[in-house]
Amino acid sequence: MNRAADIALAGLGLVVVSPLLGAAALAVKLEDGGPVLFRQTRVGKDGVDFELVKLRTMVEGAERIGAGYAVDRGDARITRVGRILRRTSIDELPQLWNVIRGDMSLIGPRPTLRYQVERYTERQRRRLEVPPGLTGWAQVKGRATLPWADRIELDVWYVEHRSARVDLEILVRTPLALFAGTYKGRRGGWQPEE
To answer: With contact defined as beta carbons under 8 Å apart, do 120 and 157 qualify?
Structure first.
């Protein structure tokens, strides 16, 4: 997807979902009084770090307690509001701002953490040749229900085959993929399963 389309669609998307985002932000704040947004450094195109934003769905400092970055079904660190936001992927909507800023695209491999990128093979590093996306080929093919290596391979396939037709297919299939699940294994899909 080209930059102009990203800006136009992300801007329109923010306008359309702003009432929903406002209500979700209020729910996050009212639940425990903590910050509404969660910010985390992720790896973008060409391996450049950027700050990803999303609605906070876990207790404050969750990445420093329990399973760390791994999140699995029933994780006690997920708040009640957070469970709803994660199930519906509403927590990801603030990333439309990342798209407008140019950190991300609407379509591309999901952005990962630096320690994950450091484990990539040479082939897997190809997923960094394009901007990370709000949705992508791996998301519509199974999301976190797929093994880690399979998701990365699907992302590399996207990099090698991306086209307007593939992007359109991803956009059409994304709403159905939202209900396919977000957890995988005891590590929540954050690390390769052994």
So the answer is: no
Tokens representing 70 are: 């791994």
The pLDDT of 83-92, averaged and rounded, is 92
Distances (CA, A) of 158 to 68, 80, 128, 168: 29, 35, 11, 13
Residue with tokens 């009432």: 19
Residues 48-78: tens digit of each pLDDT: 999 999 999 999 988 888 877 778 777 899 9
pLDDT tens per residue across span 95-149: 999 999 999 999 999 999 999 999 999 999 999 999 999 999 999 998 778 888 9
CA 125/CA 52 separation, integer angstroms = 20
Reply yes or no on whether the pLDDT at 194 is more than 90: no
Sign (positive/negative) of CA torsion 89, 39, 97, 171? negative
Please, are residues 132 and 42 in contact by the beta-carbon 8 Å criterion? Answer: yes
Q: Strand, helix or coil at 186?
A: coil
Torsions phi, psi for 35 (to 5 deg)? -60, 150
**DSSP bridge pairs for 40:** 52
- Residue 155: exposure state from Cβ atoms within 10 A (0-12, 13-18, ≥19): buried
Enter the tokens of residue 55: 């609605």
